[in-house]
Amino acid sequence: MQSYNFDYNQYRKKINTPKKSSLSILCFLILICLGLAMFLYPNTIKKDEYYFVEINSFLTYNEASNLANNISAMNGAGYVYYDGKYRVFAAFYPTKEDAEKVCENLISNYPTCSVYTLKCDRFYKLNTLTDNQNKSIEDLLKANVNLMNEVYKCIINFDTNEININRLFLNLESIRSDYKRYSDAFFNQFNTNTKYNKAKKYVAKIVEFTDYFEQLKEEENEQTISQKLKYKLVKMVIDHSSLLDSF
Question: What's the structural domain count of the chain?
Answer without folding.
Answer: 2
